[in-house]
Write a structure and sequence with these properties.
Radius of gyration: 44 Å
Structural class: alpha+beta
Order of helices and strands: HHEHEHEEHEEEEEEEEEEE
Distance between the termini: 157 Å
Number of strands: 15
Helix content: 25-40%
Mean pLDDT: 85
Largest sheet: 8 strands, antiparallel, barrel
Low-confidence stretches: 1-24, 26-32
């Protein structure tokens, strides 16, 4: 037998063992590597939420630090003459506010609406007198200022402020309306005001309603140098037209709170003079008789005085 064959077999056999041992070591190394990779992956998965929380915490701390280092925002302060939606802001002097509410004969039973309430002083004053009051103001900064002022004065239970357009606001529930608006704004509001419940009191600083003459007017001389006149209107009942009487008929011609017309009775026609409405209260003279009464919807009831004699009278709206 050729010895070289044995040598070659031995070499071959030895090489096979080396390859096998090498493959075994490679497998072990690969397994070890996989184990370390898996452990690393698990570690990363477990640490990711912690990392996210750390970022969030750092962001919060940074934001708080920034907020603490920044100076506080100055509260809004209005300036006289600042532009508004319909008018510029000029505050009503406090002495005139007081006079306006005096003219309205404000009571704790009243519900006040201030149109264009500005810094809230009229609403706050009304609330201090025990009335419920609401300010209508378009500027949101002025609304917030008014709320702060009301809180400082301790009247938030009776004083409220709404950010709204006064031309889109329902103020039919008000018993007193206050305003410091320009004449053209007053005239735009006038038809709506005249449709309010008879007896509603309207008070304005300085500006009138043209041919609808104020029922009362007073100028403040103490504590006021400009915009010092208070005007009062009382919404009149609507009586224009024909009214039936037991003995004839009345015909009224109405111009706001002033009335004229005729009284027809027994074939005679007598002109009406000194006719006037103050809310739902009516008075006029026909001949030597003085009529007073109250208008309630489509009826009038009252007293007529002629000389020393008094008697009741009544009328119903509509043709006889």
């Amino acid at each position: 037998m050729n010895p070289s064959h044995h040598v070659r077999r031995a070499e071959i056999s030895g090489g096979s063992r080396q390859q096998a041992e090498g493959g075994s070591r490679s497998t072990k190394l690969w397994a070890a590597g996989c184990g370390r990779g898996a452990r690393s992956l698990v570690s990363r998965v477990l640490l990711f939420p912690v990392f996210c929380l750390l970022i969030c915490f750092t962001s919060v701390v940074f934001a708080q630090t920034q907020a603490q280092t920044q100076p506080p925002k100055e509260p809004f302060q209005p300036s006289v003459g600042q532009a508004g939606k319909d008018v510029v802001w000029v505050p009503t002097p406090q002495a005139v506010v007081d006079k306006m509410l005096d003219l309205a004969k404000l009571t704790p039973q009243d519900y006040v609406m201030d149109l264009g309430s500005g810094d809230g002083r009229t609403v706050i004053t009304a609330a201090k007198r025990g009335a419920r009051a609401v300010g209508i103001e378009y500027n949101p900064d002025m609304v917030e200022l008014s709320r702060r002022n009301a809180a400082n004065e301790g009247v938030t239970a009776r004083a409220a402020f709404t950010q709204a357009d006064l031309f889109e606001t329902d103020f039919s529930q008000a018993t007193v309306i206050t305003m410091f608006l320009l004449p053209d704004i007053n005239l735009r509001l006038r038809p709506t005001i005249l449709d309010l419940k008879p007896g509603t009191r309207i008070v304005s600083n300085t500006f009138d309603m043209e041919e609808w003459v104020a029922d009362e007017k007073e100028t403040v001389t103490d504590g006021c140098t400009s915009w010092c006149t208070a005007l009062l209107w009382i919404v009149p009942a609507k009586v224009g037209g024909t009214w039936r009487l037991p003995q004839g008929q009345l015909t009224f011609n109405q111009g706001f709170q002033e009335i004229s017309g005729t009284l027809e009775s027994g074939g005679n026609s007598t002109s009406i003079s000194n006719g006037r409405l103050r809310g739902d209260q009516i008075s006029f003279t026909a001949g030597d008789a003085q009529y007073t009464g109250r208008v309630v919807g489509n009826t009038i009831e009252g007293t007529v005085t002629s000389g020393a004699a008094n008697r009741k009278w009544s009328a119903t709206r509509g043709d006889p």
